[in-house]
Amino acid sequence: MFGPDISWGGFETKYFIASMIPQNPSLTSLVVSKDNRNLVSTSLNGPKNLIPVGQAGLFSYTFFLGPKDYNMPHRAQGIGLENAIDFGSWMKWLAMPMLIILKYLNEFVNNYGYRDHYPDDV
Questions:
Q1: Is 60 exceeded by the pLDDT of residue 117?
Q2: Which of 23, 15, 18 is CA-nearest to residue 7?
Q3: Residue of 32, 14, 13, 17 lying closest to 79 (CA atoms)
Q4: Beta-carbon neighbour count of residue 14 at 10 Å?
Q5: Phi, psi of 107 (to 5 degrees)
Q6: How far apart are CA 55 and CA 113, in angstroms?
Q7: d(CA 43, CA 33)
Q8: Residues 6 or more apart in contact with residue 51 via CB below 8 angstroms
Q9: For residue 81, is pLDDT > 70?
Q10: By the 8 A CB rule, do 43 and 31 touch?
Q11: Are 81 and 18 in contact (CB under 8 A)?
Q12: Nearest partner of 32 among 53, 3, 68, judged by Cα
């Protein structure tokens, strides 16, 4: 168990992330567990609230499912979701400027790589 003060929790692969972001991180804890079949699960535990009979309870979370991008929509919220991208501990100083240059070039050519000349009928 980790926390309280968990900004986000979820699963990630090399290129994609599925994350759940609590509305109130200071009251949220993260639980990571593995069962006997080696399946890993994560859960965010919030404060225990008693909801009276006949009343409704409201719990707010934001979900982000998509590709890892350093300019993820939640970066503006300052929760650190962009830190799921591993640039390497000592190569980050080189990777970050290269990323900025590649994104700048992509705005003009819409391609990160070289495009060979193709016949017009293809």
A1: no
A2: 23
A3: 17
A4: 6
A5: -65, -30
A6: 57
A7: 9
A8: 57
A9: yes
A10: yes
A11: no
A12: 3
- Residue among 89, 82, 78, 77 at smallest CA distance from 67: 82
Cβ atoms within 10 Å of 22's Cβ, excluding its own:
23
H helices of the chain, in order, are: 92-109
The pTM of the whole model exceeds 0.70:
no
Distance of CA 50 to the CA centre of its chain: 31
Of 80, 85, 71, residue with least CA distance to 16: 85
Q: Which residues contact 14 (CB under 8 A, 6 or more apart)?
A: none
Contact between 31 and 42 (Cβ < 8 Å):
yes
Q: Which pLDDT belongs to residue 105?
A: 83
pLDDT above 60 (res 116): no
